[in-house]
Amino acid sequence: MAYSWFKAFHIIGIVVWFAGLFYLVRLFIYHVEANQEPEPAKTILKNQYQIMEKRLYNIITTPGMLVTVAMAIGLVSTEPEVLKQGWLHFKLLCVALLLGYHHYCGRLMKKLAADECRWSSQQLRALNEAPTVMLVVIVMLAVFKNNLPTDLTAWLIFALIIFMAVTIQLYAKKRRLDKEKLTAQIGQIPQEQS
């Protein structure tokens, strides 16, 4: 019975943690893009994003991470023989990378607050894809364990994920170019009228 409780809360923790990670970097993107706004909008937006980032990181994302890790320890304690399986070693490596990503986001948040972040919104969009890839790998390992499929279907799913990530990046680039074009057009209107 303990295993089921640990597993249920492990899954809940994962959902909360990933929801926070996905939205946190999205807020970073908006925070960076606020630098392009005129005053006072720039200051107002940056202050608001800073508040949202801190709350998301401290109240949702970090507790989600802690629940995930604590329940994973509980799961392993109920079935310690699982530690001998290769799929779990790779999954734990992925989780370690994800923990590093989580803490790096905390550092980025502090740099954004101090106006020391040098990441562009485009670079942050690419960074935002990392937890998606990690989520797919971790879930696949948890579901298939040592029998991870390598057939055509698996490769098609992998290709679909890559396609989605590329499409998101292209869409973001299109939006940025459209905004720049609109800004340039608005800047020309007063000159033409005079």
UniProtKB/TrEMBL annotation:
Q: Which residues form the signal peptide?
A: none
Location in the cell:
Cell membrane
What name does this protein carry? Answer: Protoporphyrinogen IX oxidase
Membrane topology value: Multi-pass membrane protein
Spell out the NCBIfam families in the cross-references.
Answer: protoporphyrinogen oxidase HemJ (TIGR00701)
EC assignment: 1.3.99.-
- The protein's superkingdom reads Bacteria
Name the job this protein performs: Catalyzes the oxidation of protoporphyrinogen IX to protoporphyrin IX.
PANTHER family linked to this entry: PROTOPORPHYRINOGEN IX OXIDASE, UPF0093 MEMBRANE PROTEIN SLR1790
Residue positions annotated to bind heme are 10, 91
List the transmembrane segments: 6-25, 56-76, 88-105, 126-146, 152-172
Q: In which pathway does it act?
A: Porphyrin-containing compound metabolism; protoporphyrin-IX biosynthesis; protoporphyrin-IX from protoporphyrinogen-IX: step 1/1
Task: Report the cofactor remark.
Answer: Binds 1 heme b (iron(II)-protoporphyrin IX) group per subunit.
